[in-house]
Design goal:
Length: 404
Amino acid sequence: MQSSTLFVSFSKRGINYALDASVRYRCIFKAEQLRSRGNQADIIHIRDIRKIHLPDYTTVICHRPFWCRELSYLFRHGTRLRLKLLADYDDQLFRPDLAADSPTVQNDRESLQTARRQSKLSRKALRKFAHCQMSTTHLIDSAMKVHHLCDYEFVPNTLPSYWVDMYAAVEPLERLQQKIIRYFPGTANHTANFVLVENFLSQWLGQNPDVILEVVGNIRINTDKFKPHQLRQRAFVDFNLLPTLIRDSWVTIAPLDKNSFNECKSGLKFWESGVFGVPVIACNNTDMERFRNDGLLLSANTRDWEEFLEHLKVPDNYCSACSAAHRAAMSAVIPTPPENFSLSQQAGIPSLNATNALMAADNTNPVISIHHRRFKKLLRDPRRFWRDSKLRKLTSRSSQQQKG
């Protein structure tokens, strides 16, 4: 019997949810896998839930749900229709007691009070579900502490085969010759993680003038620590364009601060590089441990990083590490043909009709997107906007200095 599944995104990007890598992994890629097996699978944003014909579906999966009027509507009508409602989380968003570990708080992009308020809404939503799927086992352990009556399932992130097949891998010896170390933070939420290795990288690069570090994403870097010809900075790159940068990298890095939030993250930073035979240096967490191999260093000790980088300078060592990384990473790849999500029968629902165009779109200006979200936040809740604004933080610091 064919299933019919509706994925509901709660992304802050609204109908532009396809630009969110998390939505791609937990909604788009999963829907494509279902469709490749002949099942119906659609995706919408929660704001459009009242426009969808719910009786067309047997299962509704809510990605990163938080309690709101639209989710309340879904529960009322979904329960009446006897739909199977599932929550899906790939980040620790439902623990107000651990909100201080949130990247938005760690990187001064949100106040602790605001983060706790949002976490309480996510916790309230989680407690409404009888079924929940998580991207890591550590995330399940964390969720059990706030909702132990739920039926949890480990559903790991996976890559569709077409994402890997879009671009051919570059030969290891060619990558070894140009020696580009790349870091893909994506958003400014990873600034604090980069600080952990910034001094080490600047010193090691100074001793190795033939190596280049390229950072792809909008994070703050102390550029004065690096020689200009050894540091490249590139703005946000669309997910479908990442392979063009990954495939000719010598090594990619994924530093992570050791805290409860990062411990729940998946190992996607490994397999996104590993599928192209690129070795990875990362700080270890539970999910990364599943992929241990000679092409993956898991350590927070920069001495280990230095030894591994020196080890990879040797051609035989590098080729061996590339092969090991590729073999391990391919276990996270699922054979999947690309799909088109523009559904004529669902005309009038912006989030459905926009998905395919968004997936095919080139780079979207992140600065405009950030300012747009801030403007909407100002209109919605001026006090909250002021509390979270950098201006208020500067004013507070100035006041404290004057008192001192």
